[in-house]
Fold:
Amino acid sequence: MNPPDGAPRPPTYPSQLESMVLPKQRASPASSLASLPYRTSNPSLHKLFESTASLSGSRASSGTATPTASVVPGSVFSPGSRQNGTGTPVALPPGVSDEHRILIQRAFVPHVAVLADAETEQFIRGKGLEGGLLQLLRPFGESVPGKVTIRDSVGAGRSYDDFGVRFVGANDGLGLPLSAGRNSGLRVSTETSRDGGRVSSSSIRPRRVGGDVAQIEELVDRHLQYSEFNAHDPMPDYFDQREASAPSDSSSSPFYTLFLKRLLSGLPLVPHETFAHPVASVIAVSSQSPDPIEELRSLYSRQTTGDLRLPPWVENQYLRYYVLVDDEETGDIAKSKQTFDAMKRHFGLHCHLLRLKRQQCIPSDDDSVRLPTCEWMSASEELAEIQKRETTDDITDPTPYLPDSDVTAIKTFIRELVAQSIIPNMERHTAQWNEQVLSRRRGMAGRFMSISKRWTPFGGGRSSSSSASSNSNYDSNQGFYRNDAPEALMRKLADYSFMLRDYKLALSTYDVLRSDFNNDKAWRHYAGAVEMAALSALMPTDRLPSKTRVDSIDTWIEAASYNYTNRQQMNTPYYALRSLACSVELLRLRGGSAADDGARWSSRILELGLVGPVGSALFTERASACYVVRSGIGSMRLGSRRRKAALWSVRAAESWYRLDKALQAEKCLDTALRLYGSQADAGEVVKGLPFPEMQAFIDELRQQILGLRLANRGFDDEQNENDVEDSLVVEEATETLDTNPRIHRKSLIGAAPPLMDVGPLSPTLERGEEIKKDDQFE
Amino acid sequence: MSYNFTIMSPTDTPLFTHEFGTSRSGGDGIARFTTSERSLNPFILHSALDVVEEVQWGPSTSSGSAPMYLRHIDKYANSYISCWMTGGNVRFLLLTRPRDEALGGTAGGGGVRGSLAGGRSGLAGAGQVYSPTNAATEEAVKNFFVDVYEAWVKTIMNPFFHVASGDVVKSPVFRARVAAAAKKYL
Structure:
C-alpha cells in the first residue's frame, strides 16, 4: 500500500491546528519587522538564537568530524560487505556523531506535573518569575545534576548523566487538537478556572504543548531568517570554510537539530501513548499559609477529583511529591521544620523542604545566576518569546536572575526528587507490571485468553455480559483503553521502560501490544506501538542483524506511518512525522544499507507531504546526509552513495534558494560540488561535472544564490544592483579560465572573479552544430 | 510517458543522450519533460550509477552468469531507471517518466490507453498504475536495449571510433537506430 508517488498532497493537519498558531502573529508589529532586511538585533534576542547561531560562525564547529578513511580490508566480495547495516552506533561511521540519538533519548523522559498553592505562586512571582513555580523548576529539571543510576528489568544498574524530567503544568497537555473534540470542553473549563486567579499579561498564552508542525516550521524559519540577516561579516567565513574544506560532510545543520528538538518537545497528552502522562506530581505549599497540611489536601483533591482531574485514560494514582516552600529570610525556620515534620508524618517520605530567598535578584548582584533557558520548550513558547523580545526596545536581558543559594537548593531538590522518588517508583512499577501483567499475558494462560477473546466460542461466557460489538477492553467509540485495562498498563510498562532506557523490555512489550492493538482494531494505539517498537529496536547500541532490520523494523516504520496518516478520523501527521524523523536519524547512525533506508524514509516524509517548505528543505538535506554516511568499501568505494548524496544536496540547495535562504543554499551547493568533485580522486582527473547540462544548472543556481545573498544583505539599491550585474558579467566573460568553482565568491569584494569551469569539461557531449564531420561508420 | 536514454562511459561521462516519448497507443514520440524535470534528468541519471555499481558488483541475483540487463534498478521521485551493461562496462541508462495519471495519484485519464511499457496487463482498469517491474514493461525495455546494444557494438567496431578514450557518439545512423528501436518497443 504505497501511497502514490505523484502529486504530493498538502499536509492535512486538523483544522484546529490553525487556530493554535499564535493568533496575534500577523497583527503584531513583529510581523512587519520580519519583513525588514535589517532587524533589531539586541543582545537578549541574540541569546534566543544561540542554538542555531553557530552556523553564522564557521562550520568547523562540529569538530569531531574528521573523516578518516574507512579502510575495510578485502574486496567487495569479502565478508566485510555483508555487514552492511549491521553496524552499531558504537562503531559509528567516521565523522558521524550520535547527537541525534542522544537527543531522542533525552526527549522521552518522565513528565512531572507541578501544582502550587496561590501563596507559593505569589512568592515566586515576587522573585521576578512570571510563570511561578513551574517556570522556576522547568529549566533545572531538564538535566538532573549528577549521575542517575537506573536498574533495568534484570536488576543491572546503569548510570546516566544526561537524565532529565520535564516539569509540566498540572494539565498542560490536554485539549490538544489531536485528541479532538471530546476533550475540548473539558479543557476550556479548566483553563478558565486556572486563569481566573492569575494576572495574565496577554490574552494569548503560549502553549506548552508541542505537536504543531506548522509552528515548528515557523520557528525554524525565524531562526533561519535571523542567521541570514545577522551573518556577521561573511567574508572571513568563506576563508574559514575553504581552509576547513575537508569537511564534516555529515555534520548536521543546527536548524535541523532545532527542528527535531522542537518536534520532540512538549509531547501532547494523548490516549495512545503515555509519555506525557504524569509520572509524578509536585504539590507545593508555602510555609506562610495558615494550614499547610490542609492546603496540600485540597490541592491533592483538586487533582484526584476536582477541576484538575485528568481524563479517564490517564492513571490518576501517580506519585505525589509534597514540597514545603519556605522563605529563607523572613520565614520562621523552627515553625517550618515543625510543619515539615508534620508533613512527613502525614504523607510519608516523598516530601521536601525547599528554602528560597524572597528578594528579587538583579544581574549585578554578587552571586546572581541567570535562570537557564529552557531547552525543551515547545515551538509556540519559543515563538512567543522571540516576538516579545523583538517588539521591546529594551536591550537588557529580561531573563530573571536568581541568587546562587536558590539554584543550589533547587538542584538539590530536583536531584532528590528524581533519584530518590521518581526513579525508584518507576522501577517498582515496571517490575510489578512486568510480573503481574506482562508475564501473565505472555504465559500459556495469557495466550489462551487472547485467543479465546478472539474466538468467542471459548470465552463466550465472559463476553456475553460485555457489549455486543466486542469483548475487548478497547472503547472503540471514544478511542481509548481505560487506565486500568491490561493493555493500558502494558503500554505504560513499555513507556516506562523506554524512558528508563531499558530498550529490550520496551521492545518485547511493544511487540505484545502490537498484536493486541491490531486485534482490537485500535489503529492509533497500534501505530503508536509499532512506532515505539521500531524506535526501541533501533535505540540500543548493539548490533542488529540486517535481516531483522529489513524484515521487521522496516515493516514497523511503514505500518506506523501508514496508520498515523491513512486511517479515517485518525489523521495525525504529527506522529507520522515524528516516527519517520526519529527512524531516519537512528537508521542513519547505523550506516551501511541502513543509512540507505534512512534516506528512503526521509524521501517518504517528502512524498507524504508531512512537512511544509522549510521542513522539506531540511529533510532533503537530511536524505543527502544519510547517503553521505554510506561510504563504500575498498579503493573503488564500491557501494558508496556519493552521487546520490550529491543529487539530494543539489535538490536541497534548490529548495533553500526558493525559500530565499541564501546561506543554506550555498552550503548545500558546496556540499554537492564537493561530493561530485571527490569522485575524481579515484584516479582519472574529472574536472567538471560529467554532464554539461549539470554544470550549467549548477552555475545558474550559484549565480541566483549569489544575487539573493547580496539582496539579503541589503544591496538592494540601484548602484549595488549594478555591482551584482557587473560581477556577473565579468564572470561570464572569463568563464573558461578557472577550474575551482568556489573561488568565485571573491567577486563579492571586487577582486578579479575567478570562474566556473565550463570550459574544461568532460569529453564533450554531442553538440550538433559544432560538428562538421560525421563519422558515419557505415 | 517520456524517456531519456543515456549511454554512460566507464568513467561516468555521457557518450550519447537521446530523449523521446512513447510511440505506443497514439503517442507521438515526443518527450514531454517539464523544464525543471529536464534539467534534473542528468542528475538523476548520474546518481543512478551508484546503484548500478552496487548491482553490478553485488551478489548475483540470477544463477550463473551475470546478466547484461539489470532491469529496473532505481527510482527518484517519479523517474524510474533501467540499466543495461555492456561487456566494456559501458552503461545504458533509460529514464522513464510515466504520465502523471499513470502514477496512481489521480484516477486514470479517461480513455487514454497506456503504452505497452506502461503495462498492458492493466488495460482493463481505467486507473492503471505504472509499475517498472511489470513483466511486459521489462520485456519491452529489454528489447529496446538489445536493439540499441546491437547498434552500439557496430559503432564501436569502427576503427576510427575510440571508445576507450571516451569518444562521444556522433553518428546520426546510431541515433536513427536508437530512435527506431524506441519507436518499435517503447
Observations:
- Residues 688-765 of chain A form one domain.
- Chain A touches chain B at residues 4-7, 76, 81, 638-644, 646-647, 650, 679, 684, 686, 690-691, 693-694, 697, 762-766, 771, 774-778 (CB under 8 Å).
- Residues 33 and 39 of chain A are 7 Å apart (CA to CA).
